[in-house]
Design brief:
Blueprint lengths: L6 E5 L4 H12 L4 E5 L7 H11 L12 H6 L7 H10 L8 E4 L2 E4 L11
């Protein structure tokens, strides 16, 4: 049961919002695992699970201002599976930070959204 209560943060240390989420959890005394998703890209199954917990589509999880979005997604007719494959190939497209606890997840923008799940 304890494993279900574990918090996971999909984190990019170069992103200020992502760093703020990690700091917020530390200040609240929460225990959590950090996955630097640019180094350890989520698998298809992991991304599908994240999307399910976020209750959003793959397009909703994409960073639309990234050059990779403009080059590989914009103007193309991609299926949900195609969008997930594109995020796996170009993980910079994944919005961050994603904070997961049990069967719920939020994109911690603003950071206080973390309170919705902890």
């Amino acid at each position: 049961m304890e494993d279900k209560m574990k918090i996971t943060v999909y984190h990019n240390p170069r992103c200020s919002k992502s760093r703020m989420a990690v700091q917020y959890l530390e200040e609240k005394g929460e225990k959590f695992d950090v996955i630097e998703y640019l180094k350890t890209t989520p698998t298809r199954g992991e991304l599908q699970e994240i999307l399910s917990k976020l209750e959003m589509s793959a397009m909703g999880l994409m960073r639309k201002n990234e050059a990779d979005f403009k080059q590989h997604v914009a103007g193309k007719e991609l299926t949900e599976a195609g969008l997930i494959d594109t995020m796996i190939e170009y993980p910079k497209l994944i919005e961050r930070p994603i904070v997961i606890k049990s069967n719920k997840a939020v994109i911690a923008r603003p950071t206080e959204r973390i309170d919705e799940i902890i």
